[in-house]
Write a structure and sequence with these properties.
The structure holds 2 protein chains of 2 kinds. By secondary structure, chain A is α/β, with parallel strands linked by helices. Chain A folds into 4 domains: 222 residues, 3-Layer(aba) Sandwich (Rossmann fold), CATH 3.40.50; 99 residues, Rossmann fold; 164 residues, Rossmann fold (3-Layer(aba) Sandwich), CATH 3.40.50; 56 residues, Alpha-Beta Plaits, CATH 3.30.70.20. Chain A is built from 21 helices and 20 strands. Chain A has a 7-stranded mixed sheet with strand order 3-2-4-5-7-6-12, with helices on both faces. A 5-stranded parallel sheet of chain A has the order 14-15-16-18-17, sandwiched between helices. In chain A, strands 9-11-10-13 form a 4-stranded mixed sheet, with helices on both faces. Chain A starts with a helix and ends with a strand. Chain B is α/β, with parallel strands linked by helices. Chain B has one domain: 3-Layer(aba) Sandwich (Pyruvate-ferredoxin Oxidoreductase, domain 3), CATH 3.40.920.10. Chain B is 37% helix and 22% strand. Chain B has a 5-stranded mixed sheet with strand order 2-3-1-4-5, with helices on both faces. In chain B, α2 links the parallel β4 and β5. Chain B is globular and about 35 Å long. The model of chain B has no long low-confidence stretch (mean pLDDT 91). Classes of the chains: A alpha/beta, B alpha/beta. β8 of chain A pairs antiparallel with β2 of chain B. The structure holds thiamine diphosphate. Thiamine diphosphate binds next to α5 and α18 of chain A.
Chain lengths: 582, 167
């Protein structure tokens, strides 16, 4: 490697490369709500000079903020995980009609295999639904290049552009050649054009016609672009059509096959596909999740082979790609199941679940670290649908349950999730005279996805201090009367508050507030110790599922892991555990 | 370890969230990248990091395609935890190498906080990269106050591995 080239090459994750691509394209605004596997894009973008980046309150707002910036001519990047696009789908489907002024690129980070998600929906479907182009990078170099190009295409075709990443592209690191950023000399201004920007039926009908014509132009581009390329194999016996990370698996396992690589995967390059199929004896379509390409190509009357139904679920791997073509089943399984994730030692959420379990509450849950409260031995969270669903589900249950059960329903929701989509649910409960208890587990951060700031933390992603919004003030403003703010390490207080709210017929709010132990590393913490001579081996301390407590009897507490929360001290009936200064 | 020219080498790091696996794999990849190899690595962030099993796949050679190691093709398994060693053994190629902390190492790893770098010292004996390259990257990657400690752990790893190989 020469000095020159080594200086221009860097080793980046797919997410970091997306941020680099946006920076090189002269992006002015970046918006996002965190979500694995997309969360590292915005922090990387915020490191570049001249870009205004924000953590939005949720994905819908992220896209709406992006709309405003783009309408004034600014290039704008919006990033979210796959399920975030559901939240943003309302503005997305109509933004497709409006088009753009400055380029608008939406990153959808899908999670085939559900490494850290509640479903594995295939967001390639959104490009078809919204009638917008889709690019699918297969490594970090392409993540950068495609993101950059997407801004040009967005402006050229007057459309938002979607770049679909997947976990294995987002979180893989590969070598990237970087370039200097483009000099975008633009005066951002808003020029009125109601027929474009105001989607009332009369104008939207006209825009729909324009969108259909746009799709035709995009189809022609898809035929011409080198993003859709044929790599000729050793002979014409085997051809493989693929996109995204699957391309890398195909090259790994079938180095001598011909490959039609779809970097611009929607709209389809039908002519290229047809001639590829006609010039190869046997053609396979290999794709993760839904058989979308397969069905489209079959519908063209072409004879191609796809994968078995079994592989519609889960992610593909190099070995599974081989299995599709040779039929040779080749998954190797680990010799034991992996360790499940657990709440950290000292997690502020644990005591709430111990108490909810003790009182035999019916717990509608939400999404965050606290969702782990559903796993044994806590086993105290009973539903989880999507972000924000806990409060609505609580109301629905109270509408139909007997009075005795009704008072046992508790909605458990994190602080970031409350701001994301819990507020509307809470208003619904108050408005519709609902009952039940809403418990906000307020650890002053978005912990599950890696400690991002949110409207309650008093900090922006640009490291600027800002207003810190308190959930209980919002609750008060919308008409909740019974509100308690409690330290989550104070277990008797949690129990008292729950008992009190069980005995009332109106909605009440309990905020459990203390900073996440992972976020605040400066605090001097206590450490718990077992006095073996007092231990009666009742195993009560094992019911709280703390990773610092060993299961041998009498139990030992790992002082490096222990954060001194005192929950084990509380549950120990014989006083064999005490907390001390370190 | 024998290596054909142009052949990709596969290293699998396996352990539990919180053991410093991601830092160790960052260091290894930087070393390989700066030594002129094509390198790819893959790992999963998010939920699994809360004390669950964590793997990191590292692949290097002249040209690497998949960031995931094809099943059963692992040349070197670096195990940060005994249960994860057993769990991941089936992914090892026959004749593949296992690097872990053994009984013989007990005295050499004085500080459990830098055992990840101790393992890197052992690993470095099986990768054709100069020792200075490793040391430079370690100096860049760990906080200033801990550089000495980490370099010592790295050196201890090397001498332990050499002892074993000379037996
Ligand atoms: C629509 C949507 N966006 C993003 C995510 C990713 N996600 C999962 S949990 C979570 C936030 C958790 O934060 P909080 O509610 O504060 O709970 P904590 O993890 O801090 O306990 C996010 C952003 C998601 N699952 N769904």
């Amino acid at each position: 490697m020469t000095e020159q080239s080594s200086r221009q090459k860097v080793f980046l994750s797919g997410n970091e490369a997306v941020a680099r691509g946006a920076y090189e394209a002269g992006v002015a605004v970046g918006t996002a709500y965190p979500g694995t596997p997309s969360s590292e894009i915005s922090p990387a973008l915020a490191m570049y000079p001249g870009v205004n980046v924000e953590w939005s309150v949720n994905e819908k707002v992220a896209l709406e903020v992006a709309c405003g910036a783009c309408f004034c001519g600014a290039r704008t990047l919006v990033a979210m995980k796959h399920v975030g696009v559901n939240v943003a789908s309302d503005p997305l489907l109509t933004l497709s009609l409006i088009g753009v002024r400055g380029g608008l690129v939406l990153i959808s980070a899908d999670d085939p295999g559900m490494h850290s998600s509640q479903n594995e929906q295939d967001n390639r479907i959104y490009a078809r639904f919204a009638k917008i182009p889709m690019l699918e990078p297969s490594d970090s170099q392409e993540s950068k290049d495609f993101t950059k190009l997407a801004f040009t295409l967005s402006e050229q075709f007057d459309t938002p552009v979607m770049v679909r990443m997947t976990t294995r592209v987002c979180h893989a690191k590969t070598i990237v050649e970087i370039e200097e950023p483009e000099k975008i000399e633009r005066e951002y201004s808003f020029e009125k054009d109601t027929q474009k920007f105001v989607m009332i039926p009369a104008y939207a009908r006209k825009r729909h016609v324009i969108v259909e014509a746009r799709l035709k132009k995009l189809e022609n581009f898809s035929e011409d672009t080198t993003l859709n390329r044929i790599e000729q194999g050793a002979d014409n016996s085997l051809g493989i059509i693929c996109s995204g990370i699957v391309y890398q698996y195909v090259k790994e396992m079938f180095p001598s096959a011909s490959v039609l690589k779809l970097g611009f995967s929607y709209p389809l390059c039908k002519n290229k596909i047809r001639s590829f199929c006609q010039s190869h004896k046997e053609v396979y379509v290999i794709e993760e999740l839904e058989p979308l390409l397969y069905n489209d190509i079959k519908a063209m009357g072409l004879n191609v082979k796809g994968k078995t139904d079994k592989l519609v679920t889960g992610e593909l791997t190099p070995n599974r790609v081989r299995e599709i073509i040779t039929g040779e089943s080749s998954d190797i399984v680990p010799s034991a199941p992996g360790r499940p994730p657990v709440m950290c030692a000292g997690c502020i959420h644990r005591g709430a679940f111990v108490t909810l379990k003790k009182l035999k509450m019916i717990v509608t849950g939400d999404i965050g670290c606290y969702t782990l409260g559903t796993l044994p031995p806590l086993s105290a969270l009973d539903t989880c649908v999507c972000m924000g669903a806990s409060i609505g589900a609580m109301l629905g249950m109270t509408k139909v349950l007997s009075k005795e059960q009704r008072n046992k329903v508790v909605a458990v929701i994190g602080d970031s999730t409350f701001f994301h989509s819990g507020i509307t649910g809470l208003i619904d409960v108050v408005y519709n005279k609902g009952a039940g208890t809403v418990m906000i587990l307020d650890n002053r951060t978005t912990a599950m996805t890696g400690q991002q700031d949110h409207p309650g933390t008093g900090m922006t992603i640009m490291s600027e201090p800002t207003e810190s919004i308190l959930p209980e003030k919002i609750a008060e403003a919308v008409g909740v009367k019974m509100i308690k703010v409690i330290d989550p390490y104070d277990i008797p207080a949690i129990e008292d508050a729950l008992r009190e709210s069980m005995n009332t017929d109106e909605v009440s709010l309990i905020v459990l507030r203390r900073v996440c132990v992972l976020k605040d590393k400066t605090v001097k913490r206590l450490v718990a110790q077992v006095e073996p001579s007092l231990c009666v081996q009742c195993k009560q301390c094992l019911t709280i599922g703390c990773p610092a407590i060993s299961s041998d009897m009498p139990p030992k507490i790992d002082m490096h892991l222990c954060n001194g929360c005192g929950l084990c001290v509380h549950v120990c009936k014989v006083g064999a555990i005490t907390c001390k200064e370190r | 370890m024998q290596r054909e020219i142009n052949k990709t080498t596969n290293i699998l790091f396996a352990g539990i969230g919180g053991q410093g696996i991601i830092l160790a794999s960052e260091i290894t990849c930087d070393v390989l990248f700066e030594s002129g190899y094509d390198v790819k690595k893959s790992e999963v962030h998010g939920m699994s990091q809360r004390g669950g099993s964590v793997n990191s796949d590292i692949r290097f050679g002249a040209k690497v395609y998949s960031p995931l190691i094809p099943d059963g093709q692992t040349d070197i398994l670096v195990a940060f935890h005994p249960t994860e060693l057993e769990r991941n053994r089936p992914f090892l190629k026959s004749g593949g190498k296992i690097i872990s902390i053994t009984h013989d190492d007990a005295d050499a790893v004085s500080n459990p906080k830098v055992s990840n770098i101790f393992l890197m010292g052992k690993l470095s004996c099986h990768i054709p990269v100069r020792r200075e390259n490793w040391e430079n990257v370690i100096k860049n990657k760990v906080p200033k106050a801990y550089v000495e400690q980490n370099l010592a752990a790295f050196a201890a790893g090397i001498s332990q591995e050499q002892k074993i190989n000379n037996k």
